[in-house]
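Appendix B. Raw example, untouched.
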Amino acid sequence: MKIIILGLGLIGKAIALDLLKDKRFEVSGVDMRKEVLQELKDKGLVEAYEKDLCNSDELKKVVKPYDLVVNALPGNLGFRILKACIEESKTVVDITFSSEDPLKLDDLAKEKRVTAIIDAGVAPGLSNMLAAYALTKMDKAHSLAIYVGGLPVVRTWPFEYKTVFSPSDVIEEYVRPARYKEDGQIKIKPALSEPELVEFEDLGTLEAFYTDGLRTLLHTLPYPNMKEKTLRYPGHREKMAILKEAGFFDAQPVRIDGKEVIPREVTTQILFSRLKLRPGEEDLTVMRIIAEGEKNGRSFGLIFDLLDRFDQETGIHSMARTTGYTATMIVRALAEGLIETKGIIAPEFLGLNEECFAFILQGLKERKIRIKEQIYADS
């Protein structure tokens, strides 16, 4: 299988390094940074393209020789890149967190006889699979709560947060209205709203707040009540809320000395150097999923806990591991023929496929990503 990875940032690089270990794959990559391309070329990358993929025609030329495309570009490019790959009849594993609804491309994907697995990271992605898996263990669903965050191990002032994602994606997470479900109805709250404190063993107290992470789950799984909240160290949310309310995240231009400036773009540039997790700086990923319902007429619940840390042996960040390795195990599931459905495939459908989900979980376990499962029920 000939695979091309679009975007070789910290997560795309982790994806490439993991797939390069598999003799079944010929792996190539695209990025705009020569040094990253050369580093991975030295480690076995077949082709390394130094290109800007903003032009759809150029993108289609690049992906044309390949069997499968892994889309690991920033979210603001995600939907357009996904659409172009489908138009080129390519199988896609997509980890981008675009604001557009990828399910709108389902008819196109089916017409092109393409399998495109979207939101193929840790959350959304693995979280969706676990939510779906929980449904198979109960007779009736009541509620789903997802808490997830990537955090630096060392908290540093002023933001007490760093990220392996682009700051533009972080800001988008803080401004996009958060959808949730209550009594079967989809509702909306502002991002960053309704903070709550959550306790975690080995981590202590974290702060959770609403973000728009449920995405396809709102339409696919029969939980009448659903919410997703992002986890940060206490204090970070308030600082981001101040910047948001003060207009620093606004997308509408303002005029300064006769020139139009977009506040969000300026803020992104300022935050980039301060929020970027540098190579060697350690991070962790924490996720808790609480699924509640009924089984045999009694209350029944499942709690899934994931705590993953920076890999000191390989130097790969935890968020790159948890996101990237979920994507690479989905690639392997495709190669094994465990996913054959055509169209846009939300990750929760993989959680309903017992063989496929077991395969993905086993691969994550082999990569030292483990999930603790706790069942509680009325006696």
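End of appendix B.
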